[in-house]
Amino acid sequence: MSPNTNSLMPQNVMSALNQLQDEVAKVEQALLELKQKKQEVLQHQLSTGIESLSIQAHKVNDLANCLESEILNFKETAVEINNLYHNLQTSSNSQTVTNILDIKNLDFSIPTVITNQSQFILTAKTVNVHQQMNMKKLGLIDEISSSQKSAT
């Protein structure tokens, strides 16, 4: 406002205008503080959420490793039992030799989570039962499993 305008306004109007400007400044400051507080809350929620995802990813990968191990153990045991069953059938002069285990699919997909900095990728790893069995016989499966666990 120009000095001439100030002198034409009654004193009570000037006082009210100054008071209103003070109130606007207080409201603007309160709004700024609320925005900052909201940012802090969102940042905390994000940090907590990422930590939770990390824990869940670890659990998923642990379960995936256990499932892979159990599938391979199942297959290994079934092959041993199948051999015993065949020996029993042939020693009893059975005409038909049947299998205890029939694998329809050699490749199994197991869910897994890959973490890359703050990104989580839900994907699947493929386990080939016959390839894994051969690698286990050669003593390579334990080395691969430990290197996969250390990568997660």
Task: Spell out the blueprint of helices and strands.
Elements lengths: L2 H6 L2 H81 L15 E10 L2 E10 H9 L3 H11 L1
Antiparallel strand pairs: 1-2
Q: What is the H/E order?
A: HHEEHH
Q: What fraction of the residues are assigned to beta strands by DSSP?
A: 5-15%
Roughly what is the average pLDDT, rounded to an integer?
82
| Biggest beta-sheet profile | 2 strands, antiparallel
Q: Helicity level, as a percent range?
A: over 70%
Number of structurally distinct domains: 1
What structural category characterises the helix and strand content? alpha+beta
Shape: rod-shaped
Output the strand order for the largest sheet.
1-2
In whole angstroms, the N-to-C terminal distance is 67 Å
* Rg estimate, integer Å: 35 Å
Strand tally is 2
The poorly predicted ranges are: 140-152
Q: What is the overall number of helices?
A: 4
Can you put this structure into words, describing what you see?
The protein has one domain. 70% of the residues lie in helices and 13% in strands. It has four helices and two strands. It has helices at residues 3-8, 11-91, 129-137, 141-151, and strands at 107-116, 119-128. It is rod-shaped, with a radius of gyration of 35 Å. The two termini are 67 Å apart.
